[in-house]
């Protein structure tokens, strides 16, 4: 028994060690997973700003790459009405364009009062218009060359002159027989400065050749060749910020490049990314509270934590199953240990009684009739006990190995039960057994096996009932195609927790009645027999009130 307890303790400490180990591993896994998630989110805070930038400047790129070159579709001959239409589409679509100045200019070899002149090449504005969303109609026209009151002011002319000088320089130095490269197009016809883009329509090759001739040759008075120039005034603050990762970036704003956050808040995480082109004096400024990021970290960590918990649960379950298995083995060990103990005892008692009786008979010189009868009875009874025990063990093994065959015969249930009841009442005069048979007289079955079942159940009803309450009611009934037999006693009952085990081999409920002479085989044997006869056996019991065993066997006439 000591060994058994030690075994049990070993199981217990093993399972505790296992639990501690998986709990510690889980704690480490949680810690690492949380740290990695934090690092991941912080890295994203740095890396995802490019995506925000790309999305935010997308409309600008569209404007620069698609909308501005549209002017060239007009072949440089935008009049003021077409210009109005064109700028209207821009104002509607691109909120960051605040103002557009349109220079309707000409190139000739005439004398010019304003503009740029190199040799005979003269580039002069004919009229200048400014457009904005809410500009008064009177302020649209900035300059007109044939109006004496109009003057081409320095402010109005600044962008024009810069572009005209660049273009004149290009005409002077370029090889006009060659087609323009993409680089030429970008460098000559676009001027990008802070918050401003000036674009001049790109002339065709013949036109460029003509301009070169005007510059280098003495030609008669030339016509005035149309040229258009537009300056777009942009406001970076009007760019619509597309926060592609709102879960990471709490605030995004456009700030001057030199901006430094004054808030020296250690709880604030910030980063920036400079804009490019005309917005290169500005940057995208990203900031998030640590608490805000923490929420995102937690949100991402949640499924990982769920997975870890699940793994933990599975491991605990595996641990529990192993523990249960070990426990079952441990119980089996105890059962077999008890069984050997009980069996030895069961054999030992009749053997020693027989031995004593034998010795007494041998040592007695004479034996009175009474003594002879007495010893004879003892020897007979103890031999019966041994025989009974051997039979039980033998039949059990046989039935388990399916080594016996059903010997069916028609049994008169009334006679069969009454014989058994008479025998028991002779054996236990304090035992009150009643039998009620309903709707059935003959039953085709193996009387030896049925007798064994009856004997075991009757024996138990007597054994597990308190003195004065030794009562058993047997009722036999035919229900549909079965014979139902109930054995109801008023005994000590069986604890609910043990009900599922009592049909197991060697199982005994610990109580005062089965400490001696019980091996826990009776009900297991009954169940084997009933199953062998294609039937079922069940039990209902209330502790302190009594038990009822029900056997259902298939009915055959
Ligand atoms: P045992 O040889 O110990 O009687 P059984 O297999 O016949 O073995 O019974 C198993 C256990 O079920 C017993 O230990 C006993 O506690 C309980 N038991 C069996 N029949 C009854 C009954 N009629 N009333 C109360 N307990 C019973």
From TrEMBL:
<keyword id="KW-1133">Transmembrane helix</keyword>
<dbReference type="GO" id="GO:0005886">
    <property type="term" value="C:plasma membrane"/>
</dbReference>
<feature type="transmembrane region" description="Helical">
    <location>
        <begin position="12"/>
        <end position="34"/>
    </location>
</feature>
<dbReference type="GO" id="GO:0004721">
    <property type="term" value="F:phosphoprotein phosphatase activity"/>
</dbReference>
<dbReference type="Pfam" id="PF00512">
    <property type="entry name" value="HisKA"/>
</dbReference>
<keyword id="KW-0597">Phosphoprotein</keyword>
<dbReference type="InterPro" id="IPR005467">
    <property type="entry name" value="His_kinase_dom"/>
</dbReference>
<dbReference type="InterPro" id="IPR036890">
    <property type="entry name" value="HATPase_C_sf"/>
</dbReference>
<keyword id="KW-0902">Two-component regulatory system</keyword>
<dbReference type="InterPro" id="IPR036097">
    <property type="entry name" value="HisK_dim/P_sf"/>
</dbReference>
<feature type="transmembrane region" description="Helical">
    <location>
        <begin position="301"/>
        <end position="323"/>
    </location>
</feature>
<dbReference type="InterPro" id="IPR004358">
    <property type="entry name" value="Sig_transdc_His_kin-like_C"/>
</dbReference>
<keyword id="KW-0808">Transferase</keyword>
<keyword id="KW-0812">Transmembrane</keyword>
<keyword id="KW-0472">Membrane</keyword>
<protein>
    <recommendedName>
        <fullName>histidine kinase</fullName>
        <ecNumber>2.7.13.3</ecNumber>
    </recommendedName>
</protein>
<dbReference type="InterPro" id="IPR003594">
    <property type="entry name" value="HATPase_dom"/>
</dbReference>
<dbReference type="GO" id="GO:0000155">
    <property type="term" value="F:phosphorelay sensor kinase activity"/>
</dbReference>
<feature type="domain" description="Histidine kinase">
    <location>
        <begin position="342"/>
        <end position="557"/>
    </location>
</feature>
<keyword id="KW-0418">Kinase</keyword>
<dbReference type="InterPro" id="IPR050351">
    <property type="entry name" value="BphY/WalK/GraS-like"/>
</dbReference>
<dbReference type="InterPro" id="IPR003661">
    <property type="entry name" value="HisK_dim/P_dom"/>
</dbReference>
<dbReference type="GO" id="GO:0016036">
    <property type="term" value="P:cellular response to phosphate starvation"/>
</dbReference>
<dbReference type="Pfam" id="PF02518">
    <property type="entry name" value="HATPase_c"/>
</dbReference>
